[in-house]
């Protein structure tokens, strides 16, 4: 009964590689100094939230656009990115259909009757998407790894897609029914190739945990650089800001056509600064990485933190104006909007 209630229970078995500096004694660690959130910090934050006024989310201020599902299903030649909501994105590249951090559940939580609630629905249902070839999951937090979405993808009629994930994430996917041969675990800087697409796991300043005890940092986290059709896309995953990290990533992956930069889930800063960038830091990453274009993601879906759901684009606009960056160069997509990408 317990396993039926919590099917995401299986814990990763951690095996350190002594030759790799980010493999700690008890779990993975970041490349740069990092303040690991403590249970006492969580209690302090929730005490503050209980005392503060209720946050008013102006959902009407979040632009939405109905995707052309038929056009996406018919497309196998034009590279594209469609924002599904939060960190979830549908990518078409080199004739393949890719999903990034697919989350379709009503709550970003192990339980569907408690935890952060989805305030806006996914732009497309999983059934409306064409057959998925490759799924990329950046880490095991519930707003990025949705057990129920993974289970549905594993059962798609065309057969389970390939899954590329950081080290230690496989047990949850196996429990969801993904065949072992379809799961490819990567360490930082390792890559997986499928057809004309290559996915490289890049480092991030974050942490991992999926249960109350026993699994903290025993699965790795990261972002993905995705290459194909003469293009390179990059999503950093959940990450704190460290300029040396992004200079390193930029040097290693090279020219960037599209950066998917998180702008949400950042208040209060005393608790979240180490693990989530805010809009100001997203602009600094844009200035370091110098992509041809950036899109703002990781906002507008789940009320995970203290800022209003509509607030991140307003903060982003102020930062872009400060540095003279055109809004078209670092755009805020409508929920469901598709961007057609041009090769260099």
TrEMBL record:
GO terms for MF: N-acylphosphatidylethanolamine-specific phospholipase D activity; zinc ion binding
A Pfam match: Lactamase_B_2
Top-rank taxon: Bacteria
Residue ranges annotated for the Metallo-beta-lactamase domain, each copy included: 97-299
GO terms for cellular component: cytoplasm
InterPro entries: Metallo-B-lactamas (IPR001279), NAPE-PLD (IPR024884), RibonucZ/Hydroxyglut_hydro (IPR036866)
Name of the protein in its database record: Metallo-beta-lactamase domain-containing protein
